[in-house]
Amino acid sequence: MRPHWPRRLSGQILVVQLTITTGVMVLAVSLFIAPLARELDDEATHRALAIAQTTAADPAITEGLLTTRPGASGPVQREAERIRRATGALYVVVMDREGVRWSHTTVAEIGRHVSTDPSGPLAGHEVRQVDSGTLGRSARAKVPLYGAGHEVVGAVSVGIAYDSVRQRVVDALPGLLLCAAAALAVGAGAAVAVARRVRRKTQGIGFADISALLDEREAMLHGIREGVIAFDPRGRIRLVNDEAARLLGLDADMTDYGLDAALPPGRTADVLAGRVAGADLLAVCAGRVLLVNRMPMADGGAVVTLRDRTELELLGRELDSSQGLLDALRAQGHEHANRLHTVLGLLELGRPEQAADFVAQVAGGSAASAEEIAERLGDPLLSALLVGKSAVAAERAVTLGIGARTGLPGRLVAPRDLVTVLGNLIDNALDAACERRVAEPRVEVRVWAEGTTVLLQVADTGPGVPPELRESVFAEGFSTKATASPGPRRPHGRGIGLSLVRRLAERYGGTARVGARAGGGAVFTVTLPETLIPRDAGALVPAAGGER
Q1: Which end of the chain has fewer CB atoms < 10 Å from its terminal CB, N or C?
Q2: Of all residues in the chain, what percent are helix, strand and coil, respectively (each to 5)?
Q3: Do 301 and 360 fall within a single domain?
Q4: Quick one: which of 234, 229, 313 has its CA closest to 271?
Q5: CA 311 to CA 329: how far, in whole Å?
Q6: Distance CA 142, CA 94 (A)
Q7: Other C-beta atoms within 10 Å of 50: how many?
Q8: From its phi and psi, is residue 428 left (phi > 0), alpha (psi between -120 and 50) or beta?
Q9: Global pTM value
């Protein structure tokens, strides 16, 4: 039956680690036993050599070899057997120069030639080896036997039973196997612990599932229309998907970078780094309004999601403008109703001439005001904005005045951007003028050109901006409103308007600043270079629309 391969990653790691541990233990035991057997063989041959040298040094052995005949009862046999029994050797064989045995454990072998080659010891060399003879396999040693004149007269061969050497190896095996089993148990325990930890970390999924999850993650991260950035515990970027790279102007392969190296200092970097706490935080980056959420992870890192709210903010502001226009039209409807009632009363009183004069005055005043704004500004979008804001200001009991210097001698390059800047400034000015109770709250607007540079200035009679806050008012999320929650007329008022104003100004290479108004209040001045096409250059420069 084919073994079942575990599906879970932890099970696969456990099987692999157990297999590796078992293989290592078998290899270690084998590598230990092999040199042990060699050492035991060497020890046995050294012991046989010592016995052989002791036997060869016995003068009775040499004298018996030279003066007697080989026999079972000869002095050589008796002395050799005594030494064999005393040392526990397998045999002690004494031979003459012809290789004839003079002693042997088996008496019948006395007088016969030895079964192995005796040339080495007979030539004066000592020999150690493991070999087989008439008594089986043994660890043996052969030494020359010298006479009185130091000439070789024979040789002594001593053997140690090889079974005893093998038995020593066998006797050592239980201890080795016990150590190996203990090491295997420790390895198995470690493998189980690692497998359990891996199972907890991987939630019991397999290699195929991990590969599929990685593919799905890559497809999802780079396919969604929401920016995702992952940070490691040190605050370095670990992952950036395509949408986040687009929204922040980063490279998609900008991983292992610190956030401070990837983004310039500012609110956006502070929000992404977690230095600003909260949910659904707003930030402005490269002219885009971003909704940022940061989710900490267990390892100390974090995942940040980014949503592009630029379109929604623009739509929201257009909706605010439309709502303001509706309010203004509603107020004008009430005003027109009051005027009609006045005209009706004059007619019923029989004063038609006075009724006609009243209608002419009212109609002429409104028409003159709208025509004057359109003539001085030239651009229909800016003119419509100021006309609409005038109605909104009138409803809020604020006078919206147009400065005497207002006028644009040419065509705007990007009228929508100027509408955004001027609309945000007027909205903030109206809010500020309503906050401070003065006899005649007023907002004054001036729009003029210096060459191709357009300057916008909005002054109000509000509480003004303290000097220490004149830079902070342009930061994302900063608001000087008295209430933290947006009012019914400012559903999107969360400290973004002035930030967008500055970002648009900087986008054109201009500036946005705030100062104090004489008599109290604030003056916001925005400079937008290269945003006006003079009339004498209109035929040479193609019309441009929209944002650049």
Answers
A1: N
A2: 50, 20, 30
A3: no
A4: 229
A5: 26
A6: 10
A7: 14
A8: alpha
A9: 0.43
The kind and range of the H/E element at 139 are: strand 136-146
Residue 192: both structure tokens together: 């189980």
- Single out the residue in 291, 308, 325 at which a domain terminates: 308
| The two structure tokens encoding residue 401 | 């005045």
Helices (H), 57-116: 59-67, 75-87
Residue 55 has which token pair? 């036997």
The answer as to whether 417 is a domain residue is yes
Q: What are phi and psi of 533, to 5 degrees?
A: -105, 110
What are the DSSP calls for 230-257, one per residue?
EE-TTSBEEEE-HHHHHHHT--TT-TT-
Rg (CA), the chain: 54
Asked if residue 542 has pLDDT above 60, the reply is no
pLDDT tens figures, 280-301:
777 777 667 777 888 888 878 8
**Class of residue 395 by CB neighbours under 10 A (exposed 0-12, middle 13-18, buried 19+):** middle
Q: pLDDT-derived band of residue 546, with 50, 70 and 90 as boundaries?
A: very low
Exposure of 298 in the CB half-sphere (CA atoms within 13 A) = 1
Residue 524 in this model has a pLDDT that exceeds 90 = yes
Under 8 Å between Cβ of 235 and 306 = no
Token pair 């004063």 in the structure block, residue: 351
340-369 in b/e burial notation, b at 16+ Cβ within 10 A? Answer: eeebeebeeeeeeeebeeeeeeeeeeeeee
Distance in Å from the first CA to the final CA of the chain: 72
Q: What is the dihedral of CA 186, 188, 194, 198, to 10 degrees?
A: -170
Instruction: Give residue-wise pLDDT tens across range 90-103.
Output: 889 999 999 899 99
Q: Is the pLDDT of residue 137 over 60?
A: yes
Within a domain: 449: yes
Mean pLDDT, residues 133-146: 82
Whether residue 358 sits in one domain with residue 240 = no
Q: How far apart are CA 361 and CA 483, in angstroms?
A: 41
Question: Mind listing the pLDDT tens digit for each residue in 157-214?
Answer: 998 876 655 555 666 667 767 777 787 777 777 777 777 776 666 665 655 566 666 7
Are 472 and 389 in the same domain? yes
- Whether 301 and 375 map to the same domain: the answer is no
* Cα 423 to Cα 416: distance, rounded to the nearest angstrom: 10
d(CA 6, CA 19): 14
The SS3 assignment for 493 reads: coil
* Length of the chain as a residue count: 548
Helix 380-395 and helix 310-348, axial crossing angle in degrees, nearest 10? 60
